[in-house]
Amino acid sequence: MDGKSLQEHAKRAALELPFTEHCWPFGPEYDVFKVGGKIFMLMAVVRGRPHVSLKSDPEKSLLNQQIYRGVEPGYHLNKKHWISLYGTDDITPEVVTDFINDSWNLVVDKLPKKDQKWIRPA
């Protein structure tokens, strides 16, 4: 999957998740996706290289960096809790969707219980 396709798919997948807000608080060059007012995904192009940054469990992050060439520590983010995805042949749409779902769930899990109930009803 190339970088442009990666970002297009990531945007579609993120916007399919409940209560996702797409905004540009850091300027037009950074697409930001939030749930419950908290960021779970960022997209940008740096030095001509498109990337998608996502929250990640620290242990999964390290494992995924070993498995996928297209997964690196978060670009300009906390390297322990964020990963950045880049377009490589081992990054598939399914992998991107799984990472986005994990990121969204990590953020929702940290929200107050009352917010979790309306965002993710049982």
UniProtKB/TrEMBL annotation:
The keyword Cell inner membrane does not apply. It comes from the Bacteria. GO terms for molecular function: DNA binding. InterPro entries: YjbR, YjbR-like_sf, YjbR/MT2646/Rv2570-like. Gene3D superfamilies: 3.90.1150.30. Keywords: DNA-binding. This is MmcQ/YjbR family DNA-binding protein.
